[in-house]
Each structure stands twice: as C-alpha cells, then as structure tokens.
C-alpha cells in the first residue's frame, strides 16, 4: 500500500490535486448520497440531483466489479465506470470518450461547401449495403450541374464558387437529415437517400431538385441560370457494392444528359449493355485507325445538262475484321466524340486528294468536313498540305460542310471558310433541309453548291412535302446562282422529276454505289459510253 | 450612409392545388409572412395574383432582397419563376408597403388592361416595365380610394 510519506501533506493539498485530475470522480455513500465529487465531475453533472446521475447510480453501480456505461451529455460523450470501495461506498469515474480523430492524410470534407466528400460517400455506401440485400432501403442519386462551366469560364471562379454554395443550400433544403449529400468534384454531387419507399421517394426528390436547382440565382449583381441532370441507381438490383452502384448511377446520369439535360433517369440494364457495346466500338475504332483499316470509296456525281461525270464524293469506309464494312453513319459520331475525327478526316482528305490527282483533269473530288474539324486549329494548313503533297489543283477540290458547322461561333467559322475559298477550293452545303435549314446560313457565305439530302429525294415521287422541299431548294439554288446536287437518286423517275425541276447534278445508286479508287477508270468509261 | 436600393421583378406560375378558397387562404398566409419578414428586413414591394400567375416586385438593400428572393424561390407554392428585371435603382417605388397586394378585390381580368384581354394574361409576354408600372399604378390607385 502506498503511504502518505509526508506528514505535512494536508488533506487540502490532496483535494486540490483531485480537482486538477483530467477525469471526474465521486464517492457515493451507502445511502446513495454523493459523499465527495471532484471539480471535473461537478462540471459534468448538476450536483446534487442530476437525473442522469441518479439513473447511473441505480443502473450501473453496486457490486465489486467495475461496470461501465456510455453517457451522452450535449455534444460530448463520456464513459462512466463504477466499482465498490471500502465501507459499502461506490467510486464513480467519468472520462470523456476521446473523439476519434481522422488522420490528416484522409480528407473527408470538401473545403468550399463543407460537404462530405467521396471518401465519406464510399464509407456510408459500404455501410448501407451491409446486411441482408432486401434491407438496403436507399437510393443513390448522382447530380451533375448543367452549364456551370460556362458561369465559371465567363464570370470567374469567385462567382462560380458562390453559386455552388447557393446550389448546395438548395439541395440541402430538399433532403432529410438522415440523407447524405457529398460533393464528388467540381460540379458533381451525390445523394444517399434513405427511404424505404423506393423508387417513388427518389423520383420525387429528383423532380424537386431539377425544379429547384434550375430556378434563377442571384449572385452579387448577376442573375444566373443553371440546371441539373440526375442519374439514379437502386440497390441491390443496380449494384450490390459501392463501385457497381456508382457506375450504374453514372450510366443513368450519362443518359439523362444525352437526352437533353435538366432531367433525371433511373438506371436500366440496357444502358450497361449499350455502354459496353459502345466502349468496344471505341476501342476497335482506335485500333482501326492505328492499323489503317479505313478505306476511301468514291461515288460519282453527274451533271444533268450533258450527262458527264463531273466529280466523285469521297466516303470513308471502315473494314472491320469481323463485322465487315461499317458505314460512316455508324462510326463518325463516335469518332467525333472521342476526338478521333480530326485525324480520320485528315487521312481521308490526303488519300482522296492523292488518288484524285491521277484522274482526268475535269473530274473533281468532294470531301466532307466535320464540325469538330472547324473548332480545332490548323484546318486551313491541313488543306494546303494535302493539296501540295498530292499536286491536285485547288479548283478540283470541293469541301462539303453541314449547317451545324455554321451554328458554332459564326465569325471564326466564316473566316476559315473564306480562307479556304481564297485557296481556290470550292465549298458545298451538305444535307441541306435536314437540320435548321435556315436561309440565313445559305446567305451567310457564298456557297458554290447545295446538296439536297437523300431522305427527300427518296420520298419524292410519293410524298408531297418532300416534293415541295426539293422544289424549294432547287429554286433557292437557281435564285442564288449556284448548282444543286441531289443525293440518293435511285430511279429514272426521280431523275426525270429532278431534271424537270431544274436540278443541275445528281449522285446515287442509279449511277453507281461508292467504289474503291481502283474501279474509277472503268466506271468513267462505262458511264460515258 | 444610405445603402443602394436593389429591385427585382419576377413572375411565376401558381402551384397551389385546390379550390379558390384554399388558394385564397394560402395567399393570405403568404402575405402574413411577407409583411412580418419584410418589415424586419427593410424590404418593400407589391405582389399580384391574377389568372394563375404571381407577379412580384421586391426592393430594398441588396443582401435583404437577395435573401428574401432566395427564400421565395424555394417555395413550392409556385413554379417556373421567371426573373424579368434585377438591378440597382435610385429609389424605392413602394416605400410605404411591406408587401402590397393586388388581386382578389379587383376585377381580375382588367388588371393588365388590353394586354390581358388579348392574350388571356400571359405574364411571360409582359416586360418588367409593364408589370412594374402596372403594379405601381394599381397600388397607388388603391391607396387613393382607401383614403378618399
Ligand atoms: C409568390 C410568393 C411570394 C412571396 N413573397 C414573400 C415575401 O415578399 N416575403 C416573405 O418573407 N415571404 C414571401 N413568400 C413566402 C416565402 O416563400 C416563405 O414561405 C416565407 O418567407 C416563410 O417565412 P415564415 O416562416 O416567417 O412564414 C412568398 C411566397 C410566394 C409563393
């Protein structure tokens, strides 16, 4: 036993020391009264009649072994333990439960909005997915803000940051305390909505969010309008682990954006299949370009006045090792999206110019340009290089563009078009009538030619509307003094009608399908005989 | 120091379901909140309810107007909120009204004169200027008749 060795050490000093201990303790008398309590203990409980203390003494204390229990007071958690001491008294000790501090390396909150981040979302998803599958009563919503980037780019990050905080406020006002909102990235959020009534609860929340987040914001002196797209996944069908569930929600989000943004979509299995097929095609396409599995085929265009072939349109073909020939309609959109179109386009242009350079001098070559090529620098340089390398006279090259090219930054686009024209190259408006069909576009630049989309030509004999459209476009060409080429001409009847309306040129299966360069010589002989 | 006055003019579509009485009761409740909160926040203005649409003018110190408008934006009792005008103004137009109301007690269809009879009141076709001046005129008229 430890003796008090220093006789001068008074009780006062000992009691003083007791008050300085980090933990609280008290001695309870046999009759339940508090015999002594040190200062930390007194600061935790309202002495002497604190109801929590009473409860503790009744339930926990008594007996010789140490018993402990947890206690929450306000925001603080305590561990209380009791054990019997001499004379039937009880010692009660209280210590604040250490707050588990996260190592600084793992950031769990987003600095700007104070929201939990991806780490927390993952933890809580894991937690929520534990237990029997049929008890996973929650939905995962992924949110992506529409047009937020424009705000950031045009008004700067300080305004963008303030806007984000407003958005988060609105999102907070839509969810319950038990739901989790996490910020995953710049303008990406996730909500873990805990509710047994799925999918109704998720649908209601998504609708409310699309409405509310899409309403006008005032930030400083600016009125700002953004929107939100939402993808929703429900466990366990859409994923039984966090990664799978997030992926499903992401695919649904992708679809919501694809369908026009400002809306929500639930995940469907079919989205996964589609995404996989697409990914496979993407990989194939990259490989195909590396291996030069592309070919250029040529379809003749004939002038109706003297029935002479005046040129060919170059059409990219993809010879897939397993699937055979794949048409441009199937792979060009993907090539545009994954940024491969400029390279494919350049290769087609070079190839077409080189092959056409060997044809008779009065035969021209038409090559399509994608809108994407207009927004990447160096288009004019690329055309100059193709002409120089092939030795093709610029007058023999015709570049076909669609109306969508003119939709983007018109001033810059028009400059490029004028530069191309200055080289001596001709410019044709392709697929006219299918898109915006604005006369304004035709007037905005001196096109050399308008091409009438094959969908109208095909319907022409039977469909009155198509007839009227074809007639209007031809009339337009006449009034602007430019030639008109009808695409997709398959029958003699179509040809006769087109000629009667004043169409100047035709292209289509009636003359020939697109053929490899090796067949061009023979085809010319055959068509001119 | 006088703080700069900001004014916002918007219109929105009623989303209160139910009978005319229900709507009237909700609007009464909105006006009660408005008058209580706006007085405290130094916000003044006018609210109009007509043919299923709200039009409102709010004016006051910028932060108060922004905060009030943000709260109103979140109110599920209306939707399709379209802001027609927002900016600093030299003075208040509704200085005496924490939230003046125009609607029930006036012959509804005549509020916007010829415009409403021609178009069946489509506030989205009205400019901020028209809504603002109309509200202002109506509020002033109403006050005159109350006094006289
Ligand atoms: C068309 C419309 C106009 C409103 N105008 C105001 C207003 O001017 N001031 C205001 O405080 N609340 C206004 N509200 C009500 C707010 O949306 C919100 O319900 C209210 O401010 C809540 O405050 P309370 O809790 O003090 O009642 C309006 C609501 C609607 C639908």
TrEMBL record, chain A:
Residues 136-269 form the GGDEF domain. Pfam families: EAL (PF00563), GGDEF (PF00990). Gene3D superfamilies: 3.30.70.270, EAL domain. InterPro entries: Biofilm_reg_signaling, EAL_dom, EAL_sf, GGDEF_dom, Nucleotide_cyclase, Rev_trsase/Diguanyl_cyclase. It comes from the Bacteria. Residues 278-528 form the EAL domain. NCBIfam families: GGDEF (TIGR00254). PANTHER family: BIOFILM ARCHITECTURE MAINTENANCE PROTEIN MBAA (PTHR44757:SF2), DIGUANYLATE CYCLASE DGCP (PTHR44757). This is Diguanylate cyclase. It comes from Skermanella stibiiresistens SB22.
TrEMBL record, chain B:
GO terms for molecular function: blue light photoreceptor activity; FAD binding. It comes from Skermanella stibiiresistens SB22. Residues 5-100 form the BLUF domain. This is Blue-light sensor BLUF. SMART domains: BLUF (SM01034). It comes from the Bacteria.
């Amino acid at each position: 036993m430890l003796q008090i060795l220093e006789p001068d050490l008074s009780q006062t000093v000992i009691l003083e020391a007791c008050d300085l201990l980090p933990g609280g303790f008290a001695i309870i008398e046999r009759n339940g009264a508090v015999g002594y309590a040190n200062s930390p203990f007194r600061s935790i409980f309202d002495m002497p009649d604190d109801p929590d203390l009473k409860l503790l003494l009744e339930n926990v204390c008594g007996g010789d072994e140490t018993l402990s229990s947890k206690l929450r007071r306000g925001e603080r958690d305590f561990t209380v333990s009791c054990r019997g001491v001499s004379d039937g008294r009880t010692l009660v000790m209280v210590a604040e439960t250490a707050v588990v501090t996260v190592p600084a390396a793992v950031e769990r909150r987003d600095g700007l909005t104070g929201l939990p981040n991806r780490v927390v979302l993952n933890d809580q998803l894991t937690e929520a997915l534990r237990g029997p599958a049929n008890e996973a009563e929650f939905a995962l919503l992924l949110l992506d803000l529409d047009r937020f980037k424009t705000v950031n780019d045009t008004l700067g990050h300080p305004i963008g940051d303030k806007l984000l905080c407003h958005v988060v406020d609105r999102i907070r006002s839509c969810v319950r305390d038990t739901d989790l909102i996490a910020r995953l990235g710049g303008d990406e959020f996730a909500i873990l909505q805990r509710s047994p009534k799925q999918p109704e609860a998720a649908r209601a929340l998504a609708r409310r969010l699309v409405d509310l987040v899409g309403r006008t914001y005032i930030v400083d002196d600016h009125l700002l309008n953004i929107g939100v797209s939402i993808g929703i996944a429900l466990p366990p069908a859409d994923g039984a682990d966090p990664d799978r569930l997030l992926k499903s929600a992401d695919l649904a989000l992708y679809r919501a954006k694809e369908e026009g943004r400002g809306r929500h979509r639930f995940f469907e299995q079919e989205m996964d299949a589609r995404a996989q097929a697409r990914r496979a095609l993407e990989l194939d396409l990259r490989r195909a370009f590396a291996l030069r599995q592309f070919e250029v085929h040529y379809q003749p265009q004939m002038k109706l006045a003297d029935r002479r072939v005046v040129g060919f349109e170059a059409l990219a073909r993809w010879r897939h090792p397993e699937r055979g020939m794949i048409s441009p309609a199937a792979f060009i959109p993907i090539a545009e999206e994954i940024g491969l179109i400029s390279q494919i386009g350049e290769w087609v242009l070079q190839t077409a110019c080189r092959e056409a350079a060997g044809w008779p001098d009065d035969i021209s070559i038409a090559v399509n340009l994608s809108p994407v090529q207009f927004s990447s620098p160096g288009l004019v340089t690329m055309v100059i290089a193709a002409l120089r390398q092939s030795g093709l006279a610029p007058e023999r090259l015709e570049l076909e563009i669609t109306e969508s090219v003119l939709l983007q930054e018109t001033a810059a686009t028009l400059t490029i078009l004028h530069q191309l024209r200055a080289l001596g190259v001709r410019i044709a408006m392709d697929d006219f009538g299918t898109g915006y069909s604005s006369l304004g576009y035709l007037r905005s630049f001196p096109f050399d030619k308008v091409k009438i989309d094959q969908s109208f030509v095909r319907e022409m004999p039977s469909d009155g509307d198509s007839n009227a459209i074809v007639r209007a476009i031809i009339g337009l060409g006449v009034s602007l003094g430019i030639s008109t080429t009808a695409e997709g001409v398959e029958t003699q009847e179509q040809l006769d009608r087109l000629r009667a309306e004043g169409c100047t040129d035709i292209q289509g299966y009636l003359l020939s399908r697109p053929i490899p360069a090796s067949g061009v010589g023979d085809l010319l002989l055959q068509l001119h005989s | 120091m006088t703080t700069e006055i900001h004014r916002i003019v918007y219109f929105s579509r009623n989303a209160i379901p139910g009978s005319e009485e229900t709507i009237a009761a909700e609007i009464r409740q909105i006006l009660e909140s408005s008058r209580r909160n706006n007085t405290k926040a130094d916000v003044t203005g006018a609210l109009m309810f007509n043919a299923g649409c709200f039009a409102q003018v709010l004016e006051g110190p910028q932060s108060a107007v922004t905060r009030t408008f943000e709260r109103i934006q979140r109110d599920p009792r209306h939707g399709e909120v379209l802001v027609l005008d927002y900016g600093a103004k030299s003075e208040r137009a509704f200085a005496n009204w924490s939230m003046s109301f125009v609607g029930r007690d006036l012959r509804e269809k005549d509020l916007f004169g010829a415009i409403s009879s021609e178009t069946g009141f489509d506030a989205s076709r009205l400019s901020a200027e028209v809504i603002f001046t109309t509200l202002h005129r109506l509020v002033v008229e109403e006050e005159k008749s109350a006094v006289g």
